[in-house]
Amino acid sequence: MVENQYGDGGRKAGSCPNRAESSNLDDKSKSLVLVNYFRSVPLKPVTCSDNSASLIDMLETCHGAAGNRWANFVAVDYYKRSEGGGSFQAVDMLNGKLLCGCDNVHACVDGTSSQACSPH
Fold it and tell me: What sign results for the dihedral spanned by CA atoms 48, 15, 61, 28?
C-alpha cells in the first residue's frame, strides 16, 4: 500500500505529498492506495467543511500523484459530519471510478466493468 501524508501536512490544496514512511505514491508495485485527509488535531466544529468539496478535490489530486490510480481507502475524522454528500459522496465517487470509470457507483451500468455509464 502507498499513502499520502496524514495530518495538516497532507491537507494542502493542489498537493498530495507522499507519507515519508510509505513507498512513493506512484509506485505501481503496490496495488493499494490510501488517502489520508484529516487534521493533525481533530477539530469537530470545522469537520463539516473538511469532509465536503475539499475532500473530493484531494482525492482527485491524489489520483494524479498516485500514477492515475484512485484511492482504495480514505481516512477522515468524523465521517458522518459534512456539508452536502461529504465522505459518503466521496466514497460513492471512488467506487464508481474503481468499478466502471463513472462519476459515481450508481451510474455504472449493471453487469459491466467498462466505461459504460448510465445517463441517469
Answer: negative
User: Could you tell me where the DSSP H helices lie in 9-116?
Assistant: 47-50, 53-65, 86-99
> Which residue reads 505501481 in cell numbers?
28
- Residues shown for the chain: 120
First to last CA, the chain: 34
Domain ranges of the chain: 2-107
Cβ atoms of residues 51 and 78 within 8 Å: yes
> Helices in the chain by DSSP H: which ranges?
47-50, 53-65, 86-99
Q: Is 4 helix (H, G, I), strand (E, B) or coil?
A: strand
The per-residue pLDDT for range 32-55, each reduced to its tens digit, is: 999 999 999 998 888 888 888 899
